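Input (structure):
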């Protein structure tokens, strides 16, 4: 199978089965590409997650784009984004077409039995990812302490600006305190595709030009509905760090001119019931918005605009990331950052993943059984998901 089609098929399957939000997505990716397919080592994957934590936009989608980019070039990045995004984008676009003219107050879809079962599986997936990364990355007591500090601070101060700050501080501590580890070998990286420097620089330049130029064009042509919609969603994708639920306040502010609050809440409720990235809520908002555009066109413009900054940034920094992680002088920095990444994932395992899914003793038992199936019986994630969904329907 050609590499681009391979990437598309794998990420389409993940797009159909990856419930639980960004932290769970990173767990699914870790299981699929580090443990099962061995596209890259646990250390290289942690480096990649750390890089995407620094970038604005949805971190899990950026990790997916980067995995596709490394496997099959720019076409692979597009294939990874398309496969991972398409299932939820289509479902939410259809819902936007259905509800666009109504004032529904939203739905408590998260209470549906099969969905609750999938959220419990997501807890097990994230727990397995945290345990696996901890075993390979936390090889000394200072690294474990750094992980614990990052997790504790993330839980105590749940601010969107905190994760990038913690990664910077952990990197500085690692540069000062950790001995450089061995230079990564080619077998550890195993993401062979590079991006030409001029292509990377073009993408970074285009990111800045669009961020500054779209508001100017909107000011010059204030009645161009397509331009206004694209500008709003591009700005959201370019300025929000952390992704996930952090994006909701800015999305609500940007779309308040086109829909009532109840319509926004209806889309948010529906987004909890579909797999894949939460940023595909943009497809629903574009379809439901009263902009004067055809709803399908609005959905497409909003979806492309909110993910475009991430695509440009991932392609733009890709060649430099490979250079940085092979630089022995920076390995101490990356070791510190990786310890903090494990801490951030551990904090996310509790809030929001565990807190939103586990409410009673039976839920704890279900999580333990799902974890045992993944970790000890070596069931693939999709098999655990299917069994959990079926049990959720009948119980």
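Output (sequence):
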């Amino acid at each position: 199978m050609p590499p681009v089609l391979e990437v598309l098929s794998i990420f389409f399957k993940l797009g159909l089965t990856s419930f639980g939000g960004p932290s769970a997505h990173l767990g699914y990716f870790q299981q699929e590409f580090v443990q099962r397919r061995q596209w890259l080592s646990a250390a290289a994957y942690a480096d990649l997650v750390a890089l995407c934590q620094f970038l604005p936009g949805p971190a899990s989608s950026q990790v997916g784009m980067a995995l596709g980019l490394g496997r099959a070039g720019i076409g692979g990045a597009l294939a990874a984004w398309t496969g991972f995004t398409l299932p939820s984008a289509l479902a939410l676009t259809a819902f936007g077409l259905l509800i666009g003219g109504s004032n529904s107050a939203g739905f408590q879809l998260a209470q549906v039995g099969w969905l609750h079962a999938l959220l419990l599986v997501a807890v097990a997936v994230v727990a397995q990812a945290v345990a696996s990364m901890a075993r390979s990355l936390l090889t000394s007591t200072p690294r474990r302490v750094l992980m614990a500090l990052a997790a504790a601070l993330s839980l105590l101060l749940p601010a969107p600006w905190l994760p990038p700050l913690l990664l910077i501080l952990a990197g500085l501590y690692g540069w000062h305190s950790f001995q450089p580890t061995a230079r990564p070998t080619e077998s550890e990286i195993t993401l062979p595709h590079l991006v030409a420097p001029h292509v990377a620089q073009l993408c970074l330049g285009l990111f800045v030009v669009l961020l500054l130029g779209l508001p100017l064009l909107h000011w010059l042509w204030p009645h161009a509905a397509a331009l206004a919609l694209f500008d709003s969603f591009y700005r959201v994708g370019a300025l929000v760090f952390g992704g996930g639920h952090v994006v909701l306040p800015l999305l609500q502010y940007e779309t308040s001119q086109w829909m009532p609050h109840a319509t926004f809440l209806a889309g948010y409720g529906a987004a909890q019931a579909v797999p894949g990235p939460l940023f595909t809520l943009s497809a629903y908002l574009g379809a439901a918005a009263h902009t004067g555009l055809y709803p399908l066109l609005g959905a497409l413009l909003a979806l492309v605009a909110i993910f475009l900054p991430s695509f440009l940034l991932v392609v733009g920094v890709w060649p430099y990331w490979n250079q940085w992680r092979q630089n022995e002088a920076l390995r101490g920095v990356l070791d510190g950052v990786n310890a903090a990444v494990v801490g951030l994932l551990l904090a996310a395992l509790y809030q929001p993943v565990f807190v939103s899914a586990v409410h009673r003793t039976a839920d704890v038992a279900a999580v333990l059984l799902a974890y045992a199936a993944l970790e000890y019986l070596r069931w693939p994630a999709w098999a655990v998901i299917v069994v959990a969904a079926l049990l959720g329907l009948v119980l």
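Notes: Confidence is low (pLDDT under 50) at residues 102-111. The chain has one domain: 1-100+110-395.
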